[in-house]
Each structure stands twice: as C-alpha cells, then as structure tokens.
Amino acid sequence: MSDSSKHTAPAPSVDAAPAGGDDHKGARRGAIFIGVVLVVYIVYLVVTGQVADFMGAMRNVQIPWLVVACLCMVLYMLFGVAAYAIAVWLDPNSPVGIRDLISVEMSGIFFGNLTPMQVGSSPAQIYRLTKCGMNVGEAGATQFTRFLVYQFGLVAWGAILLIAKMPFFAEKYGDITLLCVFSFGGHALLLLAIMAICLMPNTVVRLGRWVLLVLARLGLATSKIDGWRTFLDTEVHAFSDKFKISMAHGSSMLLTVVITMVQLGFFYLVPYFLMLSFGHHDVDFFSVMAASAFVQLLSSAVPLPGGTGGAEGGFALFLGHFYGSAATAGYLLWRLITFIAPTIIAAPMLGLKSAHRATIHERWARFSGRYAPVSAKKRAARDERVASAPASSHEAHHDAGTSGSSSTAPVAAEARDVKAPAAAAVAVADAAGSPATAPGARTAAPRKAAPKKKAAPKARVRRTAEGITVTPAPRRKKRPQA
C-alpha cells in the first residue's frame, strides 16, 4: 500500500512550454493530415462522377433546417462549458472564470479533433486549467472527473439506444450490429477502469507498480519508470479524492450528468436535422440518433486524427441509407458542422482568459442575491429595521396610541343611548379629526402635564325620524380683556 503522505504533498508545477509545444505540434500534424484527406475525398468525387449529384443535392437544401443543425452543434459546445462550470463552482476558491472555461472546452475540441483517438484533448485541457491558476493536481482531477462523466454519458446513451433499437439494428444491418456491440463494450470497459481508479486507488497503485516492475525487468528506461511511478503515487489518489469530493455533492454531480446527456443528445440530432434539410421528413429521429451514436463510437476508436476512416465508414453503414441519393452531400455537411467548423471556431478561442478576480462561486452568489424575489428582500429589510429600532420609539408609539384612544372616550360616553353601530361610526369620525391619530402624523416626545382647564362643551348626538344627527358644540365667546 502506498504511503498516504505521498499523495497529499503539493503537486509539482507544470512546465508550460513543453506542454504547449507538444500539443501544437500534434495539432499541426493532424491539421495537415485532415487537409490531405479532404483533398483526396474531393478528387474521389470528381473521378467517380458524383460531383453533379452533390451539387444537385446542395441546391435543394432547406436553409432553416440547416440552421437548426448548426444551432445543435453550438448548444453542444455551450453545454460542455456548463458542465465544467459546475465542477469549478463546487470549489469556492477556484480561480477559473467563465472565459477560462470557454478556452478549456475549445482546447479539448481543437486538440481532440486533430489527434488520434482524441488523445490530445485531456492534456490540452489540463494545460489550460493550469494556465488559469490551478495546480497540476487540481487541474488533472477536474479534467479526470469531467472525462468520467462524459464517458458515462457515452455509455448511458449507447445502452439506451442499443436496448431500444436492437431489433431495428439486427433487421437493418444484420451482422454489422456486432460492431456496435463491440464498440459499446470497449467504452463500457474503459468506464469500469476509470471507476476502479476512483473507488480503489490503493489497488490500482499496487497493480501499476507491479506492471512497472515487469517493464523495468524487460529493460525499459529508468527515467520513464520513475516518472510513471511518481504519477501513480500522486495523481491516482488526487483523482480519487476529487471524485469523492464531487460525489459528496450528489445533486451537483447528478446535474453534471444530466447536462452531459443533453449535450450528447444535441450532437446526435445533427444528422436528423440535416435529413430534414434535404427533404427526408419520413425518418424516425430516435433511429437516427441511435445510428449517429454508434458512428461516434466507431470513429472515436479509430487511431487516426478526427477518426478518419471510422467516420466515413460509420456514416456509410449506419446513416447513408437514410439520405438516399443525398448521402454524399449529407456526409460532407455533417463533417463540416460537427468537425471542421468547430475546429476552426475553437482556434481563436484557445487564449481566452477571464479578467476579473471573482470566482464563479462568488459571482453566482451575487447573481442569485441580486435577482432574489422582491418580497423576500422587503421582508429582510423590515426585520432589520425592527431589530435596530430604539426602545424609546416603541414607547412613543404606545403613548400616542393611548392618547388617541382616550380622545374618543367622551363621545362614547355621550352616545350610550345609541346603538353600537352608530356609536362606533361617531367615534371613528371624531377620532379621524384628531391630530394625534391623523395619517402621517409624527409621534411627539412626551411633554410636561399642562394646567387643567375647564372642560369644553361636547357635541350632542340625537336619534330622530330622519336618522342620527350630530349637533356641533357651541363656540365659547371670548371675554373682553381688561
């Protein structure tokens, strides 16, 4: 069993120049390879005489459905950024911002599309995370968790579509269905291996050390053996710890899985909307999604940049019959929307960097507080005012209320012979005219008792045949001053 102190030590710093240089060299070679493949494909169309069919199909394309297909690919990229944002949001002190995450997602798309089996995707994204302020251990663990969720989404979609559409595949493709099963099985085994690293890191470290010992006895270079051993002792446990932290936030982890499933769903719908753009409205979108999913599984297993060979073969096997005579145009548009255009769009976004210092966690807290319900804000402000109000103000209100109620006592005493509703109406009318209870009147501070004066004449309240009448009190005549 490995020493726990080894995987809790600070992760080593990343050497930025070699990492970026290796990624750019691999991407450059991949771009050259893809360019050569496209030239060969165009020459093939010319030699076989399919250019006329291609141009005829392109003239009949319905632009609105083509725009929807492009929008699906844009949403695929945006949901990828959202999945990273949730992983970063779980850490309140993470220095990574939204524009940083856009560059991380674009790095994965760019270097993944231009390297065999997308092997350049994860290293490029880890490199971008370190450039955003994360150390190597945190960046690797974050990327590892994201890769785990993405792989789970691929396997989950494959299982759902394979179970739902197995009779369709068996009837339509026959023995070719075995390719789907084997491809699905390979991705499922990869997912199980990742889960073993996350849940049983000590066992994985022991097994890895045994493999390294065998390689050392076979004569492998000692420097490589030492580097791999260091990786086993540090990064495997870092990956496991990050996964356990993510699983502790079960709701956020579940939300990331849902976002990844929706992200892949948009990718699988691109061929369906392309069929609609060519006028093929009699296709089952679920069947097209199933075929598109297995084309993606096959192309990702081909050890060439962009899945070259697997993409063409998979499209011809599983999607070509849906397009009919527009299969060539459909393939080129599908490849343009899902591969070439995202690669070109991602290139200028590789260097995006957030300019602010606030973390995503802080910005979300600020956003949720700013757009909180108005009633909740008012209630909180009222409670704060009540808690901070001085005791004397409450006493003053109490005194004012007492004096206001006492001013109605004489009227109530004079109206004893009147029924209760009439007496209440007269009391309210008299109280409304009192300055002590007028609306908006300020509460005055208690004063010294004034000298007693002679009681003023009171109003007369009588009941007559016409109703209740109130006779105002006569005014007193002023005495002439001596």
In words, what does this structure look like?
72% of the residues lie in helices and 2% in strands. The protein has helices spanning 4-8, 16-48, 51-59, 63-89, 98-113, 121-131, 136-173, 177-199, 201-217, 222-248, 250-277, 285-300, 310-323, 327-346, 360-370, 374-388, 391-406, 409-414, 420-432; strands spanning 460-464, 467-471. A two-stranded antiparallel sheet has the order 1-2. The longest helix is centred in the N-terminal third of the chain and has 38 residues, at 136-173.
Largest β-sheet summary = 2 strands, antiparallel
Helix content: over 70%
Strand segment tally: 2
Globular, elongated, flat, extended or rod-shaped: what is the shape?
Answer: extended
Low-confidence stretches: 1-21, 391-429, 431-444
The rounded Rg comes to 39 Å
Strand order of the largest sheet: 1-2
Termini separation (Å)?
A: 116 Å
Order of helices and strands: HHHHHHHHHHHHHHHHHHHEE
Share of β-strand residues: under 5%
Mean pLDDT: 74
**Global structural class:** mainly alpha
Total helix count? Answer: 19
